[in-house]
Amino acid sequence: MAGAVAPGGEGWSSRWAFILAAVGAAVGLGNIWRFPTLAGENGGGAFVLVYFGCVVLIGLPMVLSEVLIGRHGRSDAYHSVIKVAEDSGVSRKWGLFGGFGILGAGAILTFYSVVAGWVLYYVGVMGADFLGALFSGNPMAGALAAESPETIPTRMTDLFANNWLLLSMHVLFMGVTIWIVARGVTDGIEKAATILMPAFFVLLVMITIYGAFTGEFARALAFLFTPDFSKLSPSVINEALGQALFSMSVASAALITYGGYVAKETKLAPTAVMIGLTDTGVAILAGLMIFPIVFAVGLDAAAGPTLVFQSLPIAFHTMPAGSLVGLLFFVLIFFAALTSSISLLEAVTAWAKEKTGWSRPKSAWIAGGVIFLVGVACALSLNIWSDVRLLPFWPLFAEANIFDTIDGLVGKVLLPLTALLTSIFIGWKADRKLVEAETGLSGGMLGIYRFLIGWVAPIAVFLILLFGLFPQLLG
Ligand code: PFF
Predict the structure, then answer these.
(1) What contacts 178, CB < 8 A, 6 or more positions away?
(2) Can you tell me the distance from the alpha carbon of 69 to that of 87, in angstroms, rounded to the nearest whole number?
(3) pLDDT bucket at 303, cuts 50 / 70 / 90
(4) Closest ligand 1 atom, CA of 26?
(5) Which of 119, 339, 343, 399 is most exposed, with minimal Cβ within 10 Å?
(6) Stronger pLDDT, 388 or 8, i.e. the higher one
(7) For residues 46 and 292, what is the distance between their CA atoms, to the nearest angstrom?
(8) How would residue 359 be classed by pLDDT, with cut points 50, 70 and 90?
(9) Ligand 1 proximity of 280 Cβ (cutoff 6 Å)
C-alpha cells in the first residue's frame, strides 16, 4: 500500500488511482458542454489560443501548487493551507482562500448537478430510443426516428417546463454522487474513477472517429484552430481564464483535497502536468468530436448552451446509427460529469468531516443535502423562478437568473480571486524549501515554475479580473 497516509488513514492505492481520480475531477461538463459552446460563441481559434495560454501559464502551475498544498497539509483545503502557512511562519489567515475554494466547490455543484440531471434525462431518452430501434430490428436507425428535426429540440424545452422531471433528475444525480463519496476514498471515489474514466476515454475516441468519418472534420479543425482576433475582448479573455480554471478544477479546493491523499513518494510535477494537459486534450478532442457532427447537418456552431442538448440530437437524427451513437454520447458526458461532481462534493465533505468530527457518510449526506437544496433554486430558475434576481444591483448580473448568477459569480469572480490568492501565497509567502521539496523540481524547471506562479499567474489573473469586471476601465 503505497498510498494510505492521509486524514483518517485514507489514501489512493497507487499513483495511477490518483491520476485517474484527478483527471476525472478535471474532465467534465466543462470540457464537453462548456468548452465547445464558448469556442463556438467566441470565434473558435482565437478563443482556443487564449484558453491555451491560460492553461500553460496559469492552470498548470496552479494544479501543481494545489496538489502540493494538499500533500503537505494532509487535510481538507482550508486546514491544508493553514498547515502550509504555519510551517512557513506566515499568518493562518491564508486559510481563507482554502475556504473560498470550498465555497466555490459547493457553489459549482449546485448548478453542475442540475446540468448533469439534463444529461441523465437524455441518457434515458436516447436509451429508450435505441432499445426501440433495436427491438424493431433496425439498430442502424437515426436517433428519435419517429420525430422530425423541428420537434427534436422541444425535448429540452419540455424538460425545462417540467419542474418535477428537472428535480427528479437533480435528486438522482446528487444521490449517486453522495453515495459514492460516502463510501470513501478507496472504495468510492477511486473505484468510480478507475471504472468510469477508462470507459469515458474509449467512448470519446470512438465517437470522435465516427464524427471524423461521417461528419465534416476538416471544417471542425479550421473552426477550432483558425483564430479570428476581432472576436477577442476583455470579457472574452476573462471568460477564457474562468473556463481554464473551471475546467482544470483549480481554485475550487478539489485538487488540494485530492492532493491530501497522495503518497509522499509520488513525484508531483510530472503528475500535475499530465493531469492538466489531459484535461486540455480532452477539451480539444471534445470539440473535434462535436463540431464535425454539427457541421455535417449544417447546424449553428454558435448555438450556445443548447448546442449539445438540442443541436446534436438533430444531427444524430439523420446520421447512420445515430440512435446508438446518441446514447453513447450522453453516457460519455454522464461519466465525465459524475467523476467531477464527486470531486466537488469530496472537497466540501472533507472539510465538514474535519470541522465537525462527523463520520464520512454523515458529512457527505449533510453537505450534499445542503448543496442539493440550493441546486433546487438553480433548477427552478429555469422556469417558475426565472424572474428572480440575486444581484439586481450589479450590472454584470442584473439580468441573470439564479443559475446564471451563481455560475457567473463563481467563474468570473470567485475562481479568479482564489487563483490570485493561491499564486501569491505559493509564490511569495510559502516557505521556499517546503515548496521545492514537495514539487521535487530543481534547476531551470524550478525557476520556470517559480516565475509562473510568483509573477505571471498573479499579474495575469489580476489584470483579467480587473478588466473583465470593469471593462469601462479600458475606455
Ligand atoms: N473541471 C470540471 C469540468 O470541467 O466540468 C468541473 C469542476 C470539477 C470544477 C471540480 C471544479 C472542481 F473542483
Answers:
(1) 345, 364, 365, 368, 369
(2) 11
(3) confident
(4) 1
(5) 399
(6) 388
(7) 19
(8) very high
(9) no
199-243 pLDDT tens trace? 999 999 999 999 999 999 999 999 888 888 888 888 788 889 889
Query: Whole-number mean pLDDT of the chain?
Result: 93
Contact 69, 81 (CB under 8 A): yes
Look up residue 58 and give its DSSP letter.
I
Secondary structure of residue 44 in the 3-state scheme: strand
Q: Give the residue ranges of DSSP H helices in 42-94.
A: 45-54, 60-73, 77-87
Longest Cα–Cα distance in the chain: 71
**Structure letter (DSSP) for residue 141:** P
Residues in the chain: 475
Ligand 1 atom with the shortest distance to the CA of 246: 9
Cell of 217: 472534420
Tally Cβ neighbours within 10 Å of residue 356: 11
- Helix or strand (DSSP H, E) at 254: helix 254-259
- Which pTM was predicted? 0.95
pLDDT at residue 205, rounded to an integer: 96
- Residues 453/283, Cβ–Cβ less than 8 Å: no
Instruction: Say if ligand 1 is within 6 A of residue 252 CB.
Output: yes
Which DSSP symbol is given to 142?
Answer: P
Q: Quick: pLDDT tens for 5-48.
A: 555 679 999 999 999 999 999 999 999 989 988 988 888 889 99
Question: Do 459 and 219 form a contact (C-beta atoms < 8 A)?
Answer: no
Closest residue by Cα to atom 9, ligand 1, is 249
What percentage of the chain has pLDDT greater than the value 70?
98
Instruction: Tell me the pLDDT band of 117, cut-offs 50, 70 and 90.
Output: very high
Ligand 1 pocket check for 26: Cβ under 6 Å: yes
3-class SS of residue 227:
strand
- Quote the radius of gyration of the chain (alpha carbons, Å): 22
Give yes or no for a contact between 85 and 95, defined as CB atoms under 8 angstroms apart. yes
Q: Is the CB of 461 under 6 A from ligand 1?
A: no
Please say whether the beta carbons of 197 and 23 come within 8 A. Answer: yes
The reply to whether ligand 1 has any atom less than 6 angstroms from the CB of 271 is no
Topology of domain 15-474 in CATH is Amino acid/polyamine transporter I (1.20.1740)
To test the ligand 1 pocket, which listed residue (67, 249, 410) has its Cβ within 8 A of the most ligand atoms?
Answer: 249
